[in-house]
Amino acid sequence: MSSQRVTAILVVHDGSTWLAEVVASIASQVRKADQVFAIDTGSVDSSVKLLKGARIPVATIDREAGFGAAVAHAVSQLPAAIEDSQADGNHEWLWILHDDCVLHPNALESLLQAIEDRPNVVMAGPKLLGWHDRTHLIELGVSIASNGARWTGLEPSEYDQGQHDGIHDVLSVSTAGALIRRDVFEELGGFDQNLELFRDDVDFGWRVRVAGHAVISVSDAIGYHAQASANERRSVDVKGAFLHRPLLLDRRNAAYVLLANSSLFALPWLTLQLLSGALVRATGYLFAKLPGYASDELLAIGSLFLHPAELLKARKFRKMHRLISPRVVKNFIPSRTSQLRASFTRLASELRARILPNTAAQDSAVLSDLDLNEDEDLLAPISHAPWRTIFYRPMVVAAAIIAVISLAWTRHRIGSLSGGALTESPESFRDLFKLYIASWHEVGMGSGESTPAWVLIVGIASIVTFGNTQVFITLLFLLGPFIILVSAHRYLKKFTENGWLAAGASLLYALSPVTIAAVNAGRLGVLILLALLPFFIRQIYQWIEVEKWSWRGIYGHSLFLWLLAAFNPSIFAILIGAVLLSVINDYQKSPNGYQDPLFKVRLYRRLTLLVIPFLLSAPGSFGLLRHPSRMFLEIGLSVPGGGPNLAIVANPGGPGSLPWWCISPITAVLIVAYFSTTAARKFATPGIVFLLLGTAASVIVVPGNGTTLSAQVFAGTFLSLATLFAIASGVVMFDKIKARLQQSNINYRHISVALVLILTLAYSATAAFWLVTVGSNSPVQSSQSKVLPAYLTVEKSAKTLVIRSYLQGSERALGYYISRGSDATLGEADVAPADTQVISQAVEGLIDNTGVNSSKVFATFGIKYVFLKKPTIDEIVQTVDGLGGFTRTSATKAGIVWKVNNPTGRLIHTDYAGEVTILEAKGVTASVPSPGTVTLTESFSNGWRLYQDGFKSARIKDQNGLPTFEVTNAGEVTVFHDGTLRRAWISFFIITLVTTIVLALPAGRRKREISEKELA
Amino acid sequence: MKKERSILLAVAITFVLLSSNLLNFTVSTKSFSESYPSTVCPPSIPGLSTAISLTSAEMQLRKTGTNSMKTKTVKVSRYAVTSQSAIIESEEVTPVVWQARKGVWAGSVACSAPATSQWFIGATADITSKGSLNLVNSGLGRALVSVSVFTEKGSLTPQEFIVKANSYENIPLVSLAPGAKRISIHVVPKSGRVNAFLIDERGKGLRALGGDVVNPSSNPEKLLEIPAIPQLNKRNLATSHTLRLLVPGEINARISAEIRSTDGTFSPVGINGKVIANQKVIEIPMNIKMDSGIFALIIKSDQPILGSVFSKTLAEGKSDFVWSTSAPKLSDFTLATTGLAPTLVFTGKSVRATLEVVSSKGELRSVIIRGEDIATYKVSASTRSVRFTKIARGVTGAALISSKSGYGYLPLTPGSVLTKSAIPTSNISVLNP
Fold first, then answer.
1. Sign of CA dihedral A541, A543, A544, A547
2. CB within 8 Å of chain B, chain A residues 855-884
3. From the record, what ranges are coiled-coil (chain A) (predicted)?
């Protein structure tokens, strides 16, 4: 039996909920405290009455008094310690008790036993478990991380199975059940009364440590702690608790502890960490829709920094009581690695819980221990399935089929891809970000068009390949069919228990005509759509009864629709059509017209689904309102589709698509399913609608990106939807069909099923044959030689007019475009200007031999070279040679280059005498030799500015449509494109996106909203 | 219900498919520019008189030797060139140039659009040669021309010539292949609007041996058709003709020949089965014994081949020689004949063509040519132009012209054909590999 004297100090504040049990636990201690003293901080509940009933002496102090003040008051009421007993090694101990912490009957005895052989220990604490879940380990010693987080070294909701048991040296222990030697407590000045609640324990432990004493946690002593204040189970009424917010107080105190106790050298870094940590957490809370917590984070740091005197005083006080090097606590402060590891573990655990929810545990709770048969595991035969059975799994077989086909199909696609609708990818994702942010794009004669959001999305997605966009795009096209297979399977397996049917149908989707056309012709948008569609289409059946979607769901779906529309503008056409039809339908069904509440609810939801994607796609989406036909455009280069006769068999056509004789079973499946079961018809009907819409859309002719050429619409979006609906209807129809057919006599059903099967087999064979033979020579290939020869890429600022003949169908056509020292790269086509009339006429002159002034025109627009790409047309070569104004500089196997004889450049200065000088630009500055005008050889835009001596020069649009500035003095000028408008759009986009994401995310719960059970 | 669904589906599919196909017009993704390139006539070098036969006094013309591309109206229907070379906006008409050294020799050649490759099978570069190769650059940019010469000993290293903008370069044949008796020339412009013209003029001391303008041949082919070889003799004696051949490829050629004449079709002695060494200019003498007249020579070869026939002529009491070169298949075009009175010769298994003859007074007269193997038509001196239409397959033709100065040959081939070129459209796709 220990001879130590123990005084239990119970601090009470509105704790009647827990107090009865706490008092009982004090009374039932094996080793009783020598005296028990309660301090009540102005409780307004029955706490005091309860204590008095238990015959515990109570002193009541001010309600706003902090925990430290309460303990200090209690200690001041105790008789003075006896010096002689200390000399014998017997000390008086203060056992600090909380009104929400129950102690195990052995707790005090275990604590005293632990300190018996450890004379340097002046503070010991129990193992704290949850109040409700008493297997939940809360603390076994506590520390503080450099970002101010309370560090216990435990996993969230860690199950206590004795894994941390023992007596451990720790930085500090919780004050709940802590045993503190009274003389040291008094010597160190007790708990810092600036820390009225929270973190006073860590602070005291820290001070104990640097005073040369030890702190231990004792797992044999157990307490069950409700953490009522931290969990917002009672109000925080302490004087210093600004706004009475626990989180604010906790964060403020955490920062205080760190800044008051850390060494001087660590302060700048700590300050930075605390600030950045607060910002990050505040952002996180905003995303979790907890603005109160977010403000707590920021206010906590702010309120502390507003009172530096408090900190200085605290540091001075600690310096006086510090006896050993502050390095002694270093071992107890978690390292950055430990903090990172813990963060990752937490993140991984949360992800795992989301992706692989423990449904078994949730679904079948063990009601009784009797239900458990521990011998069952031993009796159950161990499965010894041979490893090769993995190859009998349907999805493995389907993936293997794609892999085998892909070996031949993609043999020309190992490396950086380009061709078809896909332009060359830049090496780094930074180039895509630059393109997205830039207000002016040096493409053709220049463009101020806003870069569409898909460029940004691809740039961000390229982070998975360490920022290498080329690798990302290559992997996307190589793995595209696999990704589509998996996503389709996730969707289709819900309709059948037959794994082979689901896998076969997914394989058909992954090798459907529209997938093949998308992969072969570099149609990035359709490829993304095909992969994402199965995820989205699962929800589409609630479109009619859209009120069943929560608002969070509406925002989530809006984001998803935006993502699809960013890559496929035709989604807007479908969306507008669907919203219009649905609203009309709702109105017709509505008994009270537009005043009907259900009509309104549906209307608001539908409009949200339309407006948010529209706003997120701004300002490009506003352009769609002015030119609705552009909704049918694809992203990237314009590559025509195959017309209605191919579209009706679900083949979008165009370069790289399957030939007409590879007839897919999609249309047949839709027709058969339409007359099949009601369940199958549910999918077949929208499928037929999209098939017919796709057929009709394939007739539309629209001018493409960066060209005046009109081309037939590629109906990939419509046909993707039709294909997925067809396959889903097929799966529903074929599920358990064998049994159904066996039960009936041979009729049209047998014939139609046989027909579909034969068609599917024929398609599989012909498509596979085509893919491994002709299909590999698709427009999209790797290692394609550059258009521009290397010597034309040296002068980055020089414009080169590239003329090139290419086969369009069976005819040879001629195209031209202005290059800025490189080939077209990803995203540039979407912002490229179509043409400049004057230049087009000058180019025509090169062909029809009328271009006597062509070289002059080119020089006016800053075009320095004319490059005729091989294969050249002799007549054109002769014409350019003969026209004059051009000097042939080279003729190589790449093509023929002529230099425009008239001097030209980016900035052309014309003085008042009419003398023309080409200005040498250094970045955005150039030196003007005399007053006159400066013409910028870029397309006119209101954003162009020329500054001289800090003043903006007057700007006009000259007769050629070029921006021209009046320069009044000789000297240096600065020419740039003002990107304010672009920055405004980007800000608008970010605000809209973040707001929508926040609204779509599940809301975080305040601690007071979390059940006791969850909190343990 | 099922029936209704069937009808609905059938109607929907039929309607969409029909209306789509009705609306689906093939989008013309390009527009075309159609034009006749201007034709370039040979330069009038000192000592020669040059006259260009035109069909209209309203034709536009400019000349080399200036910096201007401006054209002027000709004002006459036979234009005499005193110097330089004429460039004529002759549209579908092929002007014909008659060049002569008065009282010594004469020759004819068609004005033609610049070509990317021209072969000349004829002329000599030996001591008797006074001939020259004239390179005309009708463009306003400098031209670089590669000239390859083949001789009886083989091919010589190609030479390159720079021809200044809108000018011509006269290159004596003796400087191209000094001492070579038999030459053939291949002219390939590397840049510029270039036409080449070859004059084969010969003399021994002060004695003139005659001369001719050697017409260019198209690229080598396995079937060579020389439609008109004049047989001009005083008595029924064998006349000497010389067949000059060149196999420009890497493999020797085995040839066979056929002569078509009004007397019938026969094979000349000593030609059939003959092997022609590659890249060497080979001459085969042909002693043809028949009445005065005209015959055609058809040569078949197992390798692409070029060839022409050198014939001594006697016209209006004047001795001369003429190079009858191969002619491509006859196509629709208009030949300006003002002041020339040529004899048109057509050859083919079955000759059939319609000639629209326009007199100097503007009267139009249609003449139908029918025959087998060979047919001739003498154009009157008052004829301004002859348009060839409704031509049967496999017909080739040539014109033979005689004057006091000498005798000329002209293959019937258009000098300028309608060029249809797609007008380029602005398209960023051209910057994508």
1. positive
2. 869, 873-884
3. none
A-chain CB neighbours of B428 within 8 Å are 443-444, 637, 705-707, 817, 824, 828-829, 832
**What residues does B359 pair with on adjacent strands?**
B383
| pLDDT tens, position by position, A377-431 | 555 555 566 667 777 788 999 999 999 999 999 888 888 899 999 999 998 999 9
Per DSSP, what are the bridge partners of residue A124? A179, A216
From chain B, the residues in CB contact with A849 under 8 A are 35, 37-38
- Say if CB A107 and CB A223 are below 8 A apart: yes
Nearest to B406 by CA among B251, B198, B210: B210
CB contact under 8 A, A847 and B422: yes
| B431 neighbors A801 (Cβ within 8 angstroms) | no
Strands A799-808 and A863-869: what pairing? parallel
Report residue B50 CA to chain centroid gap. Answer: 18
Within 13 Å of residue B204, how many CA atoms lie on the same side as its CB?
1
Question: Which CATH number is A5-345's, of 3.90.550.10, 3.40.50.1860, 3.40.50.300, 3.30.360.10?
Answer: 3.90.550.10
A634 and chain B: CB distance < 8 Å anywhere? no
Bridge partners of residue A803, in order along the sequence: A816, A868
Q: Which of A141-145, A207-211, A686-690, A795-799 has the lowest mean pLDDT?
A: A795-799
Q: Note the pLDDT of residue A383.
A: 55
Q: What is the pLDDT of residues B177-216, one digit of tens each?
A: 999 999 999 999 888 889 999 999 999 887 888 899 999 9
Furthest-apart CA pair in chain A: how many Å?
Answer: 119
Closest to A120 measured CA to CA, from A264, A317, A305, A324: A324
Confidence check on the interface: ipTM exceeds 0.95, yes or no:
no
Nearest Cα to Cα of residue B404 among B198, B201, B100 = B100
φ and ψ of A996, to 5 deg: -65, -40
Integer distance in angstroms from the first to the last C-alpha of chain B?
55
Between helices A469-492 and A513-520, what is the axis angle to 10°? 170
Please state the pTM of the whole predicted model: 0.75
| CATH (one of 2.60.120, 1.10.8, 2.60.40, 2.40.50) for A907-978 | 2.60.40
d(CA A213, CA A699): 86
Contact A823, A894 (CB under 8 A): no
Average pLDDT across chain A, whole number: 87
Question: How far does the CA of residue A653 sit from the closest CA of chain B (Å)?
Answer: 14
* Cα separation, B338 vs B349, whole angstroms: 30
Which residue has better confidence, A918 or A382?
A: A918
> How far apart are alpha carbons A313 and A319 in whole angstroms?
10
Cβ atoms of B321 and B310 within 8 Å: the answer is yes
CA A668 to CA A671: how far, in whole Å? Answer: 5
- Cβ neighbours around A902 below 10 Å, total: 17
Which residues, including other chains, have CB under 8 Å from residue A832's CB and lie 6 or more apart?
A441, A443, A444, A447, A705, A706, A817, A824, B428
Helices (H), A810-902: 828-831, 837-848, 854-860, 874-883
Give the pLDDT of residue B30. Answer: 56
pLDDT for residue A364: 43
Rounded Cα distance, A456 and A468, in Å: 14
Nearest chain A residue (CA) to B14: A692
Q: Do domains A5-345 and A907-978 have the same CATH topology?
A: no
Lowest mean pLDDT among A129-138, A303-312, A351-360, B295-304: A351-360
> How does pLDDT run across B124-165, given as a tens digit for each residue?
999 999 999 999 998 888 888 999 999 999 999 999 999 998
Instruction: Using CB atoms, pick whichever of A802, A847, A875 lies closest to residue B431.
Output: A802
- Ordered by start, the domain boundaries in chain A are 5-345, 395-776, 785-900, 907-978
